[in-house]
Design a protein that fits this description.
Layout: H1 6-12, H2 16-19, H3 30-33, E1 48-56, E2 63-72, E3 78-84, H4 86-100, H5 110-127, E4 130-138, H6 141-148, H7 150-168, H8 183-187, E5 191-195, E6 198-206, H9 209-224, E7 227-229, E8 232-234, E9 238-243
Antiparallel strand pairs: 1-2, 2-3, 4-6, 4-9, 5-6, 7-8
Helix pairs in contact: 6-7, 7-9
Length: 244
C-alpha cells in the first residue's frame, strides 16, 4: 500500500505508518483472497472492480465485512476504497437465521429441511448414491410438557438437540444455527427440527443401508440415559422411522 487516508486508518485500526507497509494479502481473509485472484491483476485502466470481502481490523476481535471498490488509474496504480458493512451483514444473517433456523435449539427448521431434502434427492439422482432419512419423535414429551410446564419442556428439547448432535458427531456432520456467513456449512446440517418434538436426520452418501440403522441405534442409546433438568431426572426415549 503506497498511501492511505484517515478513514482507512480507522477502518483497519492501524496508523498510517503501519498500514502503508501492508500488502493486500495481509489485510484480506485468506478464504476471500483466493476468489478471482487474477481479477485485480487484469483490471484495465479506467475500469472498476467491486466486491465484498472480510478484512482484518486491529483490535476488532477478528474480521469485519467490507464493500470494496478498486479502480485502475492511468498510471497503472490501483485506487481502492472500503466501506464497513459488518452491521448490514450481521442483520442479514439474523434474518436468515430467523427464517431457516429454530430459535430455541439453533437447528435447521422445516423450511430449511425442505430445501435440504430437495437438494439431496437431486444429487442422489445424478450420482446414483443412496441417502437415508431418519424421522424421530420424542417419547413422553407431551406428558413432560403438560405435567411440568413448557419451560421444562423447552429445556428438555435443548438437551435432546445436544444429544442428537453428539450422537451423529463423528462419521456424520452436525449443524448449528449460522454464526457467520458460511452458508454452505449450514445447508449441509443433517439434523432438523420440524416442530414440537419431531426431528429428522438426513444421511447422504450412504454406503450401506445398515449405516442408517447404526446411526439410529446410536441416537436411541444416547436418549435412553436420563436428562437432568434442575433437581429432576427425566427419562425419555424416541421412536425412529427410517427411509432409504
Amino acid at each position: 500500500m503506497l498511501a492511505s487516508n484517515r478513514a482507512a486508518h480507522d477502518l483497519f485500526g492501524l496508523s498510517r505508518a503501519v498500514l502503508n507497509t501492508k500488502r493486500i494479502g495481509e489485510l484480506v481473509h485468506p478464504d476471500d483472497l483466493d476468489r478471482d485472484p487474477l481479477a485485480l491483476r487484469n483490471l484495465a485502466a479506467g475500469m472498476t472492480l467491486r466486491s465484498v470481502r472480510r478484512l482484518r481490523r486491529q483490535g476488532h476481535n477478528g474480521w469485519i465485512w467490507a464493500e470494496l471498490s478498486a479502480r485502475r488509474l492511468q498510471d497503472g496504480h490501483v485506487q481502492a476504497t472500503a466501506r464497513d458493512i459488518t452491521a448490514r451483514m450481521e442483520a442479514e444473517q439474523q434474518i436468515r437465521n430467523l427464517a431457516y433456523f429454530d430459535s430455541l435449539i439453533s437447528l435447521p427448521n422445516r423450511e430449511l429441511f425442505r430445501d435440504q431434502i430437495e437438494i439431496a434427492l437431486d444429487r442422489t439422482k445424478r450420482s446414483d448414491e443412496q441417502l437415508a432419512l431418519l424421522f424421530l419423535d420424542i417419547d413422553l414429551f407431551k406428558q413432560v410438557n403438560d405435567s411440568l410446564g413448557h419451560s421444562v419442556g423447552d429445556e428438555l428439547l435443548v438437551n435432546v438437540a445436544d444429544r442428537l448432535r453428539s450422537a451423529v458427531r463423528g462419521s456424520d456432520t452436525v449443524g448449528h444455527r449460522a454464526r457467520d456467513t458460511d452458508e454452505a456449512e449450514d445447508l449441509a446440517s443433517p439434523i432438523s427440527r420440524l416442530g414440537g418434538d419431531e426431528f429428522t436426520i438426513l444421511i447422504q452418501d450412504l454406503d450401506h443401508a445398515q449405516d442408517a440403522a447404526r446411526v439410529a441405534r446410536r441416537v436411541l442409546h444416547t436418549l435412553s440415559r436420563p436428562i437432568q433438568i434442575g433437581d429432576r431426572k427425566i427419562f425419555v426415549g424416541a421412536s425412529i422411522g427410517i427411509a432409504v
